[in-house]
Amino acid sequence: MKSCKICFVFIVMILLLQCKSESEILIPSYRYKLLQQNLAKGWNTWDTYHIMNHVLLPYNVSVSLSLIDSDGKRVDKCQIGDKTKENPLITPGERTYDGKYTELSATWNGHKIRVQSSSDEMNNIILITPLIGNKPGMKVVVCINRMWNSNSRVSVIDNTFFFSSSSLQSDLYLEGHVSGNIVSTSNNEISVLADEPILISIGKTMPLDKAEKKLRQSKKKLLEFKYKNSEGEKECFDAMQSVLAWDNIYNNELGKVITPVSRLWNSQRGGYVLFCWDAYFASMMLSQSNRDLAYANIIEITNTQTPQGFIPNRVQSGNKYTSDHSQPPVGSLALWHLYQKYKDKWLLEMLFDKLLKWNRWWHIARSWDGLMCWGSNPYSSSHNEWYPMQSRLAASLESGMDNTHMYDNVDFDKTRNLLCLQDVGLTSLYIMDCRKLALVAKELNRIDEYSELMERAEFYSTNIQKLWCEKDGMFYNRDPRTGEFNKRMSPTNFYVMLAEAATPQQAKRIVNEHLLNQAEFGGNWLLPATPKNDLAFYDNNYWRGRVWAPLNFLVYLGLKNYALPEVTEKLVISSKELLMKGWRKGRYVFENYNSISGDGDDVRNSDKFYHWGALLGYISILENSNK
Fold it and tell me: Is the pTM for the entire model greater than 0.90?
């Protein structure tokens, strides 16, 4: 009898533990922990500093490829988009998100090679092939390394290398082989002449012909995946998926997989950098074909929320973040977009309160007489910023349009911490933010918050009509002290359609009289960040005169709220062709584009592989998916 009671108690305890385990799994933060664990594993080019460093997670060991040209010059780090003439030119090829297939080519001092890889669990093959026109004499140095303070062991004997570790639950023991014209072996490095194919086999060893077959199969599988997810826009999806996949990294400081704007920006910021609205846009694009990465990026940027309540403009290595200002409030737009795709309510539960806190912060910190102004608050920080706080420049940085012409010579009120300009773009974005968050609140049955958000949306929607100029048929920014319109425009003046705050008649006027006006925003390449009748258009410098994908994207979403099919089609086609101009030429996705020539690499301050440039193609993908 006593033994029966013991058995009964034991069974009850097991059931209770099981219930606890199941309830824990339902917690959003735990779901996200599992999601990150699933992302951070296997072979991939995880290292942001070197595009040819193949790292195995979670063991943190790597096979990195260095190059030595025929004159003896060595390079250990290569990057897509590196404009330094002394470094290799990297052309990105096909690549899966998880690194199961990668392909790129490198051109350097007359040498031309292609690097392909195909991984499966712990196994990986890397094939280096000389291309037509390759100058003889280059060597590839296969470097066997430990990464990020790994306690794994590495060793090299002749053409064979070893990884081993007993620190994890399952021991690591991997053997790799290098096949080719081996020149030398020393200090965990194997140098191989690149005049003929070089095959690196890790785990399962295979001859060259079988390796080539496996690479073809892996590439075919990737192309089938792309076709399936492209919504009939194969080239647009190819560009978007490629830039997002290559920009996907693991950051050891965070212990997370993230997709920052570009590897070059990461390198300049100490290892990683997340920009606010850039990351939200990335999550939207990733949602087209990779749920987990979409969730990882929207969660990581939202989790950077400051004690004051705003999502900072920027967070980077060393726990450095922008302490005085935020960036455009597009978090709720991204969250609702992801929810419409995947219907995971736990994601809403995880992020709603943080985004609501951010929404309330805007209302308290950036409102001036019922309309929104960009700003910059005093702060105390452990690091110095490159710009002065409480300044016109700092407020301009909050807009995301760093050197925009719109705020030239506009005063900054240090008492209010606000730019002296009631902003059409910000007010519209804020109205949109209220409406999207209200949809989330309704889905979560947060009735009080729903009412609060809808009340604010209506309040600002009513007030934005004060920015309407009947004579010009345009919503203008305005000085809150004098009531005088500031008629220096940008595509942000069209965001009023995103907020659904313009009447149908007003929407037609701003489109016909301004967006399509050849003297302002009309032309072959839509939409310049500065209208042509503003002298700053001819600066062709960053946010002055150039075309920026996020502006086109937000205006497109606004147009979809109104029955304006002809102008919508023009914007869709122009945006796609602008992206394709650089993509077809060199498989690059530029940070910004020349609004006259359509070139993306005519200036130095346009990153060649910046993921939000792909929003130009995402417009076409969304347009096709809605048909």
Answer: yes
